[in-house]
């Protein structure tokens, strides 16, 4: 049993606790320690990625309890990919935040690290109830982060976000209770064994539980009927927080990918592919809704927030079709879109800081400062988000289009994705040309200085899309292997047989 | 016992959902609290209802399931923390917007401005 598995949870936990007690320490010290914690977390995530890339499952049993009796952490390719994705994103957002956005609230860094911890627990856990706890940890940190910076509009958006997520948590608990009452277990591997054996009236209970879980994950992932909270909340959050939240919807998608192929996959008898018929049309409608929202956005942050919803639709459509190629393509696109959307949030905030009273509204205004730098970053982000060659969004969408087998589904997916991509392009062109080109005479009296940390972190995060293009071969090999592993249930079920090492207690002999 | 228990869960959930859909933050918080009570009882019942049984295997002919109690305990702790946060947040909402509407809207229309008075006068 390797102890590395617990590192991505322990590092932000300890770093976060340190921050709680250092509320009155000088801000430079707090920043240094906080960023050092995030760097350590990234290192541990990369180590786990290296461990996981041999294709085997690694299990960490808390308290040496043999699964399914204790809580386990499970590391596989999917979990490792999500960990690295989050750690990279977290690092750049954190550097950006230390450029000045973290002032005004002593607990910002603590909350930020706890949020990362909640995300890491969610990716590593192999237990359904533990997943609920992970959601609560990341949500309560996100409530605090969303409020950071204040303002009455933020209070209202935050109130909606909190109430909605509390209702979601209640639904999560009900579905967990329903599934537990029939199967008597909450370990995901054990559930994958028990659910196909369910018969008779109990079948309906598990079915209802599974569908309600889908509603909960749909709320986290912002699928159409449950997505209207997102643009308001994200557009009003501080930029580094909004950028970190780009990965929050992906937690919902991760949970769907983790649980449905495993527990309700092809082997699940009567419950096979539960809910997936619903997911495909909903994903396409979500995508269309996102495009409509993006066309109607009146400021840059709202535009990017709708881009989050577009990417959710784009990701879920191939996942719902349940093919290995589709999942592989979706994972490739997931990496690309998460970083791109986060970078666009940061760019929007920089643009707003250089335009004075006009902020990030899509209106004509006096010429902004640092226009060349910001417009190039916006161009790169927009090209990657809209899916134009030569950046990574294009390759992600191309893989998704290729993964669909011919038929009605192919026609729908190709149609919606291609038309949606074209309309997104129009939305970005309109926003970019008004904000960057249509200037009125005059200039701002007092430009806000743009410090190095902010500029460099935004620049690098934006350019990660080029890195994905360079590494497209290895990355797509990895996502293909990940998809194979996800659909091979037997491997995950075998973690139940993991031998647990029980150390000999030297005292026992003496007492006897 | 089962019927009584089911009715209690049903009543709590119904009133919780009804209050959750109200437009003021205070009923919404009450609704969420009632909903979480209902959910906790439901979780508790997922280990089957029984009296006078021990959660230890081998001491009696049948045993009760201790796990749902652990789950409920976790859910209660989390629920308390969230409710406390929500109360503070809605007080902040009340202070910021001078009323407790969930959308932060003003209760009465603000008095017409000078411009509006002039326009309507003509």
TrEMBL record, chain B:
Q: Where is this region: Disordered?
A: 99-122
Keyword ATP-binding on this protein?
A: no
Q: Where are the transmembrane segments?
A: 29-50, 70-91
Q: What InterPro entries does its record include?
A: CPA3_antiporter_subunitC, NUOK/Mnh_C1-like
State the annotated membrane topology for this chain: Multi-pass membrane protein
Q: Where does it primarily localize?
A: membrane
Q: Which Pfam families match?
A: Oxidored_q2
Q: Which residues form the signal peptide?
A: none
For bias type Basic and acidic residues, the affected ranges are 99-108
Keywords per UniProt: Cell membrane, Membrane, Transmembrane, Transmembrane helix
Quote the subcellular location field of this record: Cell membrane
The answer to keyword Transmembrane helix applying to this record is yes
Instruction: Name the family the entry cites.
Output: Belongs to the CPA3 antiporters (TC 2.A.63) subunit C family.
NCBIfam families per the UniProt record, alphabetical: PRK09094.1
The name under which this protein is listed is: Na+/H+ antiporter subunit C
Q: What is the lineage of its organism?
A: Bacteria, Pseudomonadati, Pseudomonadota, Gammaproteobacteria, Pseudomonadales
